[in-house]
Amino acid sequence: MNLAGQFKQSLLTFKRRQNLIIFFAVAQVAFYVFGQWLIASEIPAAVALRTEVLGQLKDTAYLKPLTTFLGGNIPLQIAYTFAFNLVFGAFLTTTVSGIVFFIPYMIAVWRGFVIGLLTFGLIDSPSMAAAFYGTFILEFCAYSMSSAIGTDIGLTLLWPMRKKQASRKEALREAIRDGADIYLLVAVILFIAAVWEIVALHLIGPLF
Questions:
Q1: I need a surface site. Which of 15, 20, 24, 180 has the fewest CB within 10 A?
Q2: How many Cα atoms sit within 13 Å of 16 on the Cβ side?
Q3: Into how many domains does the chain fold?
């Protein structure tokens, strides 16, 4: 199958799984808004958590390559950000974890919640809003897809009849095949997100 045909297949599979994908997107946005509301309301526990997480950001291991030996090299920073988000942000964190079907949901809502906590009051210009929300929308779309894939696989392991296949093995094979189709879209979106994020960082500086 050529690339155009593969994209068409990916879009068809996306449409079949769109309800689960939308569920994850709504959950992430809802908890993002909840996190923002907690900080706006000056809830002490939320403010303390925000302060703690912000204090730890500068020592986060995955950010160090961007500020040390990759600093200033935009193509390498884009490649690193894309690879990290695809392998760790999407595949290992939200897809592989879906073997236990509810874990991707827990990760999704926590991710949205923490980003809501951290970013309240920090986006104070149109350029910063474009940089942040562009990255936010693209990455959360991709993570909604990867989370849906993981959950679909986990639910299939638990309840194979939902796939209307003759055996658990065939049902799982279908879930994995659908996941592989959708991952093409995940990869494309995360690459665009990496370009958007790194170029924005060089133009307007870091958010935190």
A1: 15
A2: 16
A3: 1
Phi and psi dihedrals of 159, rounded to 5? Answer: -140, 75
Residue 46 forms part of a structural domain: yes
- Stated length of the chain: 208
Q: State the residue range of the domain holding 137.
A: 10-54+74-204
| Residue 157 within any structural domain of the chain | yes
Q: What is the pLDDT along the chain (208 residues), one digit of tens a residue?
A: 688 888 899 999 999 999 999 999 999 999 999 999 999 999 999 999 999 998 887 777 777 777 666 777 889 999 999 999 999 999 999 999 999 989 999 999 999 999 999 999 888 788 888 888 999 999 999 999 999 999 999 999 888 888 887 788 898 999 999 999 999 999 999 999 999 999 988 888 666 5
Contacts of 207 (CB under 8 A, 6+ apart): 119, 122, 123, 128, 131, 132
CA 173, CA 179: separation in Å to the nearest integer?
Answer: 10
Position 152 in a domain: yes
**Whole-number Å distance between alpha carbons of 121 and 103:** 30
For the whole model, what pTM was predicted?
0.91
